[in-house]
Design brief:
With about 230 residues, this protein is of the alpha+beta class. The chain has a single domain, classed as Sandwich (Jelly Rolls), CATH 2.60.120. About 15% of the residues lie in helices and about 35% in strands. About 10% of the residues have low confidence.
Length: about 230
């Protein structure tokens, strides 16, 4: 009886000492987020997303006036809310410390962004009308993409927290963005040049999905070569 009791205690002790298995174990290798397709992504809000044979994902807002007519009440505030409502494409998986590399193209004028650590998954941004007090730039972090848009936050800015160095982005062309997300720092490079960094805002999440933004009805954004490498400690 004592032997059986000792074996039971030993088994429980070993079980508690071993790390719990995870279906999302940290992967220190670069992973292409667009392979095999958009299966690992969630489409949220007012937007359409397509991945072509060349590995380019295109997002845009469809001027679906039948959709507009279905909203109520049909008045100025409702129409304005529909125009300003955001569309997002989010990874199903969440990431903690990581490096993200991607290329983007936006029309001019154009506005888009990359969301990190937003555990709300843009719930306030995709509403009609959107609630700008709790969009991803407030609940997580948004890395701005801006081409001739009337906004002081230029491409590479950590929105509302750190404005980026201007003049690095190529207009109406593909640009490469690299985002370094750490517990104590967020750093952004455009075309290989460091343009913004910030230690992170107190109380905001340290982990969350990665998101691609459609800012409003006029949005047309393209992305390619989206890769992530997790930092495993």
């Amino acid at each position: 009886m004592r032997t059986r009791k000792f074996v039971l205690i030993l088994a429980v002790s070993l079980a508690l000492a071993l790390p719990m298995p995870s279906q999302e174990a940290c992967n220190p290798a670069w992973v292409d987020l667009l392979k095999p397709g958009l299966e690992g992504w969630q489409k949220l809000g007012e937007g359409k997303w397509n991945l072509d044979a060349n590995g380019v994902v295109t997002g845009y807002r469809d001027e679906d006036f039948n959709r507009l007519k279905a909203l109520a009440p049909f008045d100025f505030q409702m129409v304005r809310g529909w125009v300003l409502a955001q569309g997002w494409l989010y990874t199903a998986r969440e990431y903690e410390e990581f490096d993200l590399s991607l290329e983007y193209w936006v029309r001019a004028p154009g506005n888009s962004g990359i969301s990190i650590r937003d555990q709300t998954r843009a719930a306030c941004g995709i509403k009609i009308p959107p609630d700008f007090a709790c969009t991803p730039s407030k609940t997580g972090y948004e890395i701005q993409i801006n081409s001739d848009w009337p906004d002081k936050w230029v491409s590479g800015s950590i929105y509302t927290l750190a404005n980026a160095k201007d003049g690095v982005q190529k207009r109406l062309d593909w640009n490469r963005m690299e985002i370094e997300s750490r517990k104590d720092a967020i750093r952004v490079k455009i075309n290989g040049e460091l343009v913004a960094e910030h230690p992170g805002a107190a109380g905001r999440p340290l982990k969350g999905p990665i998101g691609l933004q459609l800012h409003d009805l006029t949005s047309y954004s393209r992305f390619r070569n989206i890769r992530v490498k997790e930092i495993c400690r």
